[in-house]
Amino acid sequence: MDFAGKHGLVVGVANKRSIVWAIAQATALRGARLALTYQGRFEEHVNDLSQELGHSPLVLPCDVASDADIDTVFAKLDQEFGGLDFVVHGAAFARKEELSEPFSNTSREGFRLAMDISAYSLIALARGAAPLMEKRGGGSIVTLSYLGSERVFPNYNVMGVAKAALEANVRYLAADLGPKNIRVNAVSAGPIKTISAMGIGGFSNILGVYRDRAPLRRNVDTIEVGEAATFLLSSAARGITGEVLMVDAGFHVTGM
Ligand code: IMJ
Q1: How large is the angle between the packed helices 19-29 and 222-233, nearest 10 degrees?
Q2: Whose CA is nearest to atom 1 of ligand 1?
Q3: Which terminus of the chain is more solvent-facing, meaning fewer CB atoms within 10 Å of its CB: N or C?
Q4: How far is CA 156 from the centre of its chain?
Q5: Measured distance CA(65)–CA(129) in Å, rounded
Q6: 157 Cβ contact list (under 8 Å, min separation 6)
Q7: How is 225-238 classified by DSSP, letter by letter?
Q8: Contacts of 138 (CB under 8 A, 6+ apart)
Q9: Known catalytic residue at 146
């Protein structure tokens, strides 16, 4: 899996525990030049982290809820990279209330926000990336999902609905952009203690249940999720699109 001469955009890095940070490291290590975007409050962290990557990465602000921000990012990438080979999407957000109250209390605004940030943003990024990828004869887009898209997990609530929409986005984008040789896939990771797990009631218990029941009898880490994503981004996966690749130590196959 060689990324020499390849250019990638990585959206959704919060800190060094982020799954997308592991993907950034894995691709940069194999030769990719990256642009990392950050959402407002993560500027310092992402700036500091970027210095650990090779190939002088670009670091740009991007609120995925803003079409103007997204337009600015792709204009800059066109200028600096002259095209784009891959995109890594790891943006997700739901309000605290939606992740703690009964699901039937999900508010209209909470639903809209979770869908906008966690699902719609993949469509907006794919649309922006497509013309730059066409200049390279194609590209690969990878997003991050979770089994809560198909099964009910306590408190995952509106994020489960947003991940279901995200996985449907993967299939529809794969069909739409496939003729341009642009592939679109997701990695569905097992639970990992990242900033996205912070303040989630009973998260240690969830990790324990996965460890006990998963065929591999352990949890996964960001390095192995990063390497699976790197595979999907690489030419080794050139025949794969519209897929959701489970990286969860096999947990999803278990019945009881
Ligand atoms: C999140 C909530 C409830 C159960 C959960 C999770 N399980 C897992 C997660 C079982 C694995 C983490 N996950 C897969 C997510 O997609 C998390 C998304 C998320 C997390 C937060 C926390 C802080 C906040 N908003 C959030 N929005 C989305 O304010």
Answers
A1: 60
A2: 156
A3: C
A4: 17
A5: 16
A6: 94, 98, 99, 101, 103, 106
A7: HHHHHHHHHSGGGT
A8: 180, 181, 182, 183
A9: yes
Query: Radius of gyration over alpha carbons of the chain, in Å?
Result: 17
Is residue 124 within 8 A of residue 117, CB to CB? The reply is no
3-state secondary structure of 144: strand
Residue 252 tokens, joined: 């999803």
Instruction: Work out the average pLDDT over 210-225.
Output: 98
Phi, psi torsion values for 101, nearest 5 degrees: -85, 165
Can you state the percent helix, strand and coil of the chain, rounding each to 5? 50, 15, 35
Two tokens, residue 6: 């390849």
Q: What is the pLDDT of residues 40-93, one digit of tens each?
A: 999 999 999 999 998 999 999 999 999 999 999 999 999 999 999 999 999 999
Are the C-beta atoms of residues 200 and 157 closer than 8 Å to each other?
no
Instruction: Identify the residues whose C-beta falls under 6 Å from ligand 1.
Output: 92-94, 96, 99, 146, 153, 155-156, 159, 191, 196-200, 206
Nearest CA to ligand 1 atom 15: 196
Asked whether 213 and 254 are in contact (CB, 8 A), the reply is yes
Give CA separation, 14 vs 45, 52, 250, in Å: 7, 15, 27
Domains of the chain: 7-247 (3.40.50.720)
Name the DSSP class of 118: I
For residue 210, indicate whether it is catalytic. Answer: no
Nearest ligand 1 atom, CA 155: 3
